[in-house]
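TASK: fixed-backbone design
INPUT:
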């Protein structure tokens, strides 16, 4: 479960960073938004998996 959360959050941060770099934003908007969104998704999936067991 921890590895799954790490991968989801890592992909969110990685995608946001590269999107900010590609669009040449000074403020890392997509990095912040996608990292927070990926944390929320990771927590949601973890809770869903935990309650299923």
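OUTPUT:
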């Amino acid at each position: 479960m921890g590895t799954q959360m790490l991968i989801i959050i890592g992909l969110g941060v990685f995608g946001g960073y590269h999107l900010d770099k590609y669009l040449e934003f000074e403020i890392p908007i997509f990095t912040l938004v996608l990292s927070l969104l990926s944390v929320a998704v990771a927590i949601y999936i973890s809770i869903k998996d935990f309650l299923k067991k």
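COMMENT: The chain has two helices and no strands.
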